């Protein structure tokens, strides 16, 4: 019996796949538990439309991530106007929130503070490196110049 899987089933297939399984397994387990639907022209069409929509969304996210990577790769964020004491350290440390605001202003992006990974808060003048997470598993290394 041919069924369309509504969600991934271990050993059977992934969500949206049309699989051929034993009729007892299909009726008594997959369909009964809501894991699959019987194949009809309507369900095949719905699955195809949903898959196209999902693919378009993935391509759009990938395109936005790539443009953000191109904007940020190798760039230096300038952080100025910080008060410095006599020893050369900052009164207020530069944190990920401050860096996100500066990057968004200087490069026209829409990063959040959680997207920025600093090993520790920046408390001294000079150039410091940090990572920006653009999308899942894609990081860009940037520099921050504090003056």
For this entry, give a set of tags.
147 residues; alpha+beta; Ribosomal Protein L9, domain 1; Ribosomal Protein L9, domain 2; four-stranded mixed sheet; three-stranded antiparallel sheet
Largest sheet: 4 strands, mixed
CATH class division of the largest domain: Alpha Beta
Sketch the topology as an H/E string, one letter per element.
EEHEHEEHEEEE
Q: Which CATH-level-2 architecture of the largest domain?
A: Roll
- The CATH H-level superfamily of the largest domain is Ribosomal protein L9, C-terminal domain
Secondary-structure content class: alpha+beta
**Strand content range:** 25-35%
| Strand segment count | 9
Report on this model:
- The structure is a single chain.
- The chain folds into two domains: 2-66, Ribosomal Protein L9, domain 1; 68-146, Roll (Ribosomal Protein L9, domain 2), CATH 3.10.430.100.
- It is built from three helices and nine strands, in the order ββαβαββαββββ.
- It has helices spanning 23-31, 41-72, 96-107, and strands spanning 2-5, 18-20, 36-38, 76-79, 89-94, 116-117, 122-124, 126-135, 138-146.
- The chain has a four-stranded mixed β-sheet. The chain has a three-stranded antiparallel β-sheet with strand order 2-1-3, sandwiched between helices. A two-stranded antiparallel ribbon has the order 5-7.
- It starts with a strand and ends with a strand.
Quick overview:
The protein has 147 residues and is α+β, with helices and mostly antiparallel strands.
Task: List the topology elements.
Layout: E1 2-5, E2 18-20, H1 23-31, E3 36-38, H2 41-72, E4 76-79, E5 89-94, H3 96-107, E6 116-117, E7 122-124, E8 126-135, E9 138-146
Parallel strand pairs: 4-9
Antiparallel strand pairs: 1-2, 1-3, 5-7, 6-8, 8-9
């Amino acid at each position: 019996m041919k069924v369309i899987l509504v969600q991934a089933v271990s050993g059977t297939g992934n969500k949206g796949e049309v699989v051929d399984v034993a009729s007892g397994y299909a009726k008594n387990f997959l369909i009964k538990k809501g894991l699959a639907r019987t194949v009809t022209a309507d369900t095949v069409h719905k699955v195809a439309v949903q898959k196209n929509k999902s693919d378009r969304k993935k391509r759009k996210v990938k395109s936005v991530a790539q443009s953000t990577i191109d904007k940020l790769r190798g760039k230096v964020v300038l952080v100025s106007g910080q008060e410095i004491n006599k020893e050369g350290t900052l009164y207020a440390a530069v944190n990920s929130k401050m860096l996100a605001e500066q990057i968004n202003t200087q490069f026209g992006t829409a990063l959040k503070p959680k997207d920025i990974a600093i090993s520790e808060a920046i408390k001294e003048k000079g150039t410091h490196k940090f990572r920006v997470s653009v999308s899942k598993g894609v990081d860009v290394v940037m520099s921050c110049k504090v003056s």
